[in-house]
Amino acid sequence: xxxxxxxxxxxxxxxxxxxxxxxxxxxxxxxxxxxxxxxxxxxxxxxxxxxxxxxxxxxxxxxxxxxxxxxxxxxxxxxxxxxxxxxxxxxxxxxxxxxxxxxxxxxxxxxxxxxxxxxxxxxxxxxxxxxxxxxxxxxxxxxxxxxxxxxxxxxxxxxxxxxxxxxxxxxxxxxxxxxxxxxxxxxxxxxxxxxxxxxxxxxxxxxxxxxxxxxxxxxxxxxxxxxxxxxxxxxxxxxxxxxxxxxxxxxxxxxxxxxxxxxxxxxxxxxxxxxxxxxxxxxxxxxxxxxxxxxxxxxxxxxxxxxxxxxxxxxxxxxxxxxxxxxxxxxxxxxxxxxxxxxxxxxxxxxxxxxxxxxxxxxxxxxxxxxxxxxxxxxxxxxxxxxxxxxxxxxxxxx
Amino acid sequence: xxxxxxxxxxxxxxxxxxxxxxxxxxxxxxxxxxxxxxxxxxxxxxxxxxxxxxxxxxxxxxxxxxxxxxxxxxxxxxxxxxxxxxxxxxxxxxxxxxxxxxxxxxxxxxxxxxxxxxxxxxxxxxxxxxxxxxxxxxxxxxxxxxxxxxxxxxxxxxxxxxxxxxxxxxxxxxxxxxxxxxxxxxxxxxxxxxxxxxxxxxxxxxxxxxxxxxxxxxxxxxxxxxxxxxxxxxxxxxxxxxxxxxxxxxxxxxxxxxxxxxxxxxxxxxxxxxxxxxxxxxxxxxxxxxxxxxxxxxxxxxxxxxxxxxxxxxxxxxxxxxxxxxxxxxxxxxxxxxxxxxxxxxxxxxxxxxxxxxxxxxxxxxxxxxxxxxxxxxxxxxxxxxxxxxxxxxxxxxxxxxxxxxxxxxxxxxxxxxxxxxxxxxxxxxxxxxxxxxxxxxxxxxxxxxxxxxxxxxxxxxxxxxxxxxxxxxxxxxxxxxxxxxxxxxxxxxxxxxxxxxxxxxxxx
Lengths: 399, 509
Fold this sequence. Notes:
heterodimer; A: mainly alpha; B: alpha/beta; Rossmann fold; six-stranded mixed sheet; 28% strand
């Protein structure tokens, strides 16, 4: 038993680190993140760069760390505000995935719902002359309604015809993508950028070219909305009757039916809420961060949000943390590329690894338990072997 | 080398919050039928799962043929000629009998000298021979889905014999069988002993042990409380050891005083997905203070009747009336609120949400009512308060009280939770489907007592059970179902067990 001592203290540290089963919903994603950051660091070293400088450049690119020098009229705040600008749609999109996931549904159509919401809002309000106080709220409402309709259509197909939501969502993504491309290219195309005509400043949810403390910056109004959405969804899922029913349908549809819950109604509802949140993501993406729509392209935010949601344990608060991190990596990679010379793809690679490690959660979850059981057993045996109170105290201190 | 073929020394196995096996030591001799008797959650299945390699003991040692077991896995157990028939069969339903038996160790031959293919033909013959030797008549080329439960069990037994198992573990083998089938199975077990096999029988049915077993170990809360020679020990003594107190086999039943009709089912027809009528023109009514029991072999439509009354299955034609109001097309919740409680057959897929906490499950019928939910907002503290009361009242045991995730609870306590939830609603009509399936004597006694208490309160009770004993001891009126039709409805005291059994087999018209 003595020769295991060193391995034991490592195992003990591991168990202590992972904590109790309740805490593991936080420690396991953290563990996954650490592993993937280490893997990313190794990769940077292989490419001959200093990983500390590499990671620092990610933070600098997001305005979380001072850069060495800034171009005229720009500063830390500029970077940080534009970071918030791209973080916002990610929060909405990940919340959309989470709500559906709680009801046992996999909404892979977030990108499509973002696009259709953003497109309809662009052509109705975005190209109009409505005053900003009316146009901005109207954009939000239109995107939510259109997103909710698109989402509940998937729910309808699921319960009326028993079509798997993943299949119909992927197909709808294609349909939205190409039909909208057709309309953009036929009616709304900007001949120079080959994208849709930019929407007016009146409808835009991100205020452009604002001067704060002598720095030119943007103000993403949608961010406030995103934080409100997080709080509302957290409350909705955990403390309301409808949230309880959604979770019941997701956890066991049969037992939910037995309890008197209308499972079909809840499938529709979950997809409608999910779609509405996706619509909000579309609003803050196409009429906030961007001002136009690139034809034939779906926003990667919609797909990355699945990873973000899983990493955040499909918990609204967890999603804030995980989307914060994933957005740093994706947004900061541009600056990392230009300043350190590391390929931008490393960002996607690290995000991919995070998802991979997070998906291994079941294994990681089982591991500390098994190790703990083994250690507990050893402790008991040792305690039995030498009934020495002093050694007992020593072990207490270990904990 | 000891006289035992299997020996367990000081085996302890813990699960979160529960010690499943606590310092268990026992020895099993070669060529005997050794029974393991104990309440649900007493640790019988866990102990045998250790022997079969599915769990590793936390402490203690296991010896097979005098050799210490070092590696715990079903593969190692099979290599040591240990076989196990699980309570829930592990068969591929669209494979044939032979294909299931050889799965994982397919005999190969070379087609044209090089192409490896599975040698089905010869194996079919081998399995036919094997089944003849042990009098386990099965058609090797039949598909599992076309066989009934008893035949499927024979396939499981053949699977062990084909793998040359010498030590055979049976986990609750008679739970799903009719009385006649049980007789037959016990014969098979005796036949295997004659062939020199060692048999371990996990059960909580005393009369079976009395009939076949040589020796018997009794477990109570994870501990061995006695190992006895079956021939020299009385059933009563064994039952006492098992439960840890005196048990009464016959329940005190108050005199039958039927009230007014509470539930009426009239010309009910329920069709399955293929349009085949699984319930065919069934009519009956249940009065207050009456236990109406539906007896029948599994799969004859009794569960569908219960589901139709509870609103979980669509009714093709006919009507269902509850307390004077027709509920044929009412929603599940509407029926529940109108006074219908339902203890479903499959507690894990219908009755509980396994990943929810005990408290959430106990309030599954009421979470949307005040004071648990006010204006759409849940009040968790009220959930917990109510749950603690029910846990106390119905003696539901779990690792962490009302916060326990139901998945981690034992089957008996899961059932207690459902019974507690349904009885607590004080509904005038209660449906019990297989309420004691897989439970031990102590728990069965407890649930039977509760059913009779509800009867005494004037509730109308519809009981669906596959256990004839249960029906005979509880029912006031018995309806026997065969092929979706109620062949006979009669007061319980006018029919003998034998008669009911004959109707169940469809022999008597």
